Amino acid sequence: MMSLRYAVNCSILFTELPVEERAAAAAAAGFTAVEFWWPWPVAVPTSDEVDRFVESIKAAGVELIGLNLFAGDMSAGERGVMSHPGRVAELRDNLAVAVEIATRTGCRAFNALYGNRVDGYSAEEQDAVALDNLVLAAQFVAPIGGKILVEPISGSEAYPLNTAAQTVAVVDKARGRGAANVFFLYDAYHLAANGDDVMGALNRYYDTIGHVQIADNPGRHEPGTGDLDLAAVLARLAERGWPGYVALEYKPSSTTDRSFDWLPREQRSARS
Question: Which CATH number is 176's domain given?
C-alpha cells in the first residue's frame, strides 16, 4: 500500500500568524506542501501583496499545491462568486491574478467555490452563469496545466451543492462543455456534516476526484476528535493509489502544533 502525501491548509491552520508567515510555520512543522484560500479580501490585490505572498512560499521552501479563487466576503457568509450574475467581470480579473501566482509558484489546482443563492436571480439563471464561469475558469488555467475544483460545503443554507452527487453533476456539465480539467473536490468533513455517504462518495466518484481535504466531524478539528472514520478514508485512498495530496483543512482543537500529533513527523513531508 502506497504512502499518502499531506499538505497543510494555511488559511485555517496557523491562523495565529500573519498570512505571510504561515508557509514557513508549516515547513517548521515538517510539511513540504501547503494550500491557501484566497489570501486577500478583494479579487485583485496589489502587486506588492502578490509579491510578498509568492516570496513567502518560495522562502519557506514549500510547494503551493492549491489555491482558492476569490470567494467574496467569507466573513460575511459569502461562499464564492461563480454563480453570481453580477460578478463575472470580478471573477475574470481574479482569474488573471490566480494564473500569475500559479506561474510563479507552480500551483496547478484552483478551488472555485460555487456561490450562495442570492436574491434577485433565479436558481436556473445562477446555475447557467456558474456553468459558463466554470468553463471560463477552466480555459484560463488550461495553458498552465491547471485544474478547477468544485466542492460541496456545509454550514451555509444558501449554498446549493451539499452532496457529492450534486457536485459531480456540475462537474459533468462543465466537462460536457469541453472543460475536461474540471474536477470534484472530495472534502470528507463537508460531506459528513451534510449527512452524505463519505465512503460511498469516495468509491463512487473516485475517478472524478481532483483533490482531497479532511477534517473530523463534528467540530471540524483534527482526526480523532470526532466520530468520522478518517482512518478508513485514508486507508481507501492509499489502497487505490491516490496520486494527489490529502490536505489538512481543519481547525485545531487546541494549538496548531498539537493538532499534528496524529500524523508522525516522518509522514508529513511529501519528499520522504
Answer: 3.20.20.150
16 labelled catalytic? no
Catalytic residue among 151, 157, 222, 239: 151
The single residue of 35, 63, 78, 249 carrying the catalytic annotation is: 249
> Cell for 128?
447557467
Structural domains counted in the chain? 1
* pTM score: 0.98
**What does the pLDDT look like over 57-114, one tens digit per residue?**
999 999 999 999 999 999 999 999 999 999 999 999 999 999 999 999 999 999 999 9
Residue 200, CA distances (Å) to 66, 164, 217, 220, 263 in order: 25, 9, 17, 20, 25
**151 noted as active-site residue:** yes
Domain extent for 196: 5-267
Residue 272 lies in a domain: no
Residues in the chain: 272
C-alpha cell at 131: 456553468
Radius of gyration of the chain (CA): 17
